[in-house]
Amino acid sequence: MDSIHALLIAPSTPETQQLGELLTDSSTVRFRIDSVEHMDQALARLRTTRPDIAFLDTAVPGGQGPDDFCRLQNAFAGLPVIVLAGVDDLCSAAQTVQCGAHSYLVKSELDGEALIRHVRHAVRRRRAEADEFRSPMFHLAQQQFLKAAQLMRLDDNIRERLLHPQRTLVVTLPFRRDDYRHVETVIGYRVQHVLTMGPTKGGIRYHEDVDLGEVSAMAMWMTWKCALMHLPFGGAKGGVRIDPTALSRAEKQRLTRRYTMEIIDMIGPERDIPAPDMGTNEQVMAWLMDTYSQQVGRAVPAVVTGKPVVLGGSQGRKEATGRGLVFAIQEAAQHLRMKLDQSTAVVQGFGNVGSHAARFLAELGTRVLAVSDVSGALYHPQGLPIDAVSEYVEQHGSLKGCTLGERLTNQEMLELPCDILVPAALQDQITKENAERIQCKLLAEGANGPTTLEADEILDRRGVFVIPDILGNAGGVTVSYFEWVQDTQNLTWTLDEINDRLHTIMAGAFQRVLNHAQGDSIDVRTAALIEGIDRVAKAKLIRGLFP
Ligand code: GLU
Question: Which ligand 1 atom sits nearest the alpha carbon of residue 278?
């Protein structure tokens, strides 16, 4: 039988007593309950004990509302907290959950079995996180999910099921350096979040900071993204913890082939279909496809998407994420009554997403005031000549040394006054530190996870319209889907057909999300998440539970 040490922080009332009894009466879990009646006593207790879980009553003497959660975290970081609320207190309880508490329970509606299940989930989740998933990005993905789950009153069991990925594979793999003397060993991952919807789908990232939590967060976002766009895939993601810019072409090829071999049992055209992400490209996908095909003894183009057109890649896939983002921006501009040919934009990141988004915006007459990459930002108050900037980057590898505009730091650039801000680089860019100073009307997310939860609230309060990542950057996986369909059906579509289909799907998803957000008076990100989560939850319920 499990044993759980619980700290009960609540005034002494009949309800508190009932909670204590429900816990001690459990036949499946043995509870050791430590009760305190004042917040100060709780904080003092945490200096000497390390409980598995805390129950925090919103009416505890000495309490300060949602801040109490942070005070508990300061005393014992990572302590899972379940909030106990009265029916009049639900708002404050919900805010505490948004700050990171596990969940809240209504005191007058306590149910023995549900309570024990709740506590076990909270404690298990904490233990698993501490072991493997401790990552700010995974925390962000989970908190976004929990916020949406709570608003949509998602079934408890499904919520727990979706909170962690269904399958994760962690591998270590060696590859030979070009001097043929050194062998480097690196860590790689492939994570499949949900296997309910069809094969799983998602990119492979090469980056020195990749970890299991980050890959899991992105796999979870892929699930919501595919469901939101009505694509028949669950979410997946992969990654190798390495800086690809420090590798020669031959080293990258050896690394890719070995990584493919390590994950080969997990992938396949009907199983899990990788694609490019940060640090990988068409060439990497070609090596992956070749390695897989060599193993099975025939050419299998459908095992990856985002590969070169000569190998069965799709027209328009390379620029699809940028193009899809600009389709979404056009829809948002219409809703906000903004004229794109009289608007200004700032684009953070000049990789595959940012450079194409900047180009398509410029083609619509938008003045792109600034763009950036790892070397910093380039700014021109009249708008940059995007084609010339792209040419420079193609020749020199980055914006470094480019004199087509003034140099700014990344932070200065994010805070420039503009109509449209496009974060298309890394996660965690718009935070509570800079959200008050962001000056755009429309934030169009090309990157995955560029905005933190706290920043979301600030932007919402300030009336900034957000096209959230799972909608904004969904053009990539949508054209990946077209590529997979063409490969598996042995047919090809023209660029116009691809772009028309992409436009229809992006515009449809945008309108669904907008209607949902307006109808329920919720922010656009939460509406997009709920659209995606709801589809997955329905599919899970209809499929039923095996065995
Ligand atoms: N890596 C891209 C994303 O985050 C594309 C995934 C795919 O095409 O499967 O959406």
Answer: 1
Q: What does the radius of gyration of the chain's CA atoms come to, in whole angstroms? A: 25
Atom of ligand 1 nearest to the CA of 480: 8
Side-chain-side CA neighbours of residue 294 (13 Å): 10
* Active-site residue list: 237
Residue 202 CA, ligand 1 centroid: distance in Å: 5
The position carrying tokens 């090469």 is 206
Helix H or strand E encompassing 47: helix 39-48
Q: According to the model, what pLDDT value does residue 2 have?
A: 64
Express as a percent the part of the chain with pLDDT over 90: 88
Contacts for 473 with CB less than 8 Å, ≥ 6 apart: 225, 321, 324, 325, 353, 445, 446, 447, 448
CATH homologous superfamily for 133-311?
A: Leucine Dehydrogenase, chain A, domain 1 (3.40.50.10860)
Torsion angle in degrees (nearest 10) through CA of 387, 388, 393, 398: -110
Cis before 547 (ω within 30): yes
Domain boundaries, the chain: 2-130, 133-311, 320-474
Q: Encode pLDDT of 125-162 as tens digits.
A: 777 777 778 889 999 999 999 999 999 999 999 999 99
Q: Which residues line ligand 1 (CB under 6 A)?
A: 201-203, 275, 277, 305-306, 448, 473, 476-477, 480
SS3 419: coil
Q: CA–CA separation, 151 vs 64, rounded Å?
A: 24
Note whether 2-130 and 320-474 share their fold.
yes
Residue nearest to atom 9 of ligand 1 (CA): 202
Mean pLDDT of 69-91: 92
Q: What's the distance, Cα to Cα, between the start and end of the chain in Å? A: 24
Percent of the chain with pLDDT over 70: 99
The per-residue pLDDT for range 424-478, each reduced to its tens digit, is 999 999 999 999 999 999 999 999 999 999 999 999 999 999 999 999 999 999 9
In this structure, how many other beta carbons lie within 10 angstroms of the beta carbon of residue 18? 14
CATH number of 2-130: 3.40.50.2300
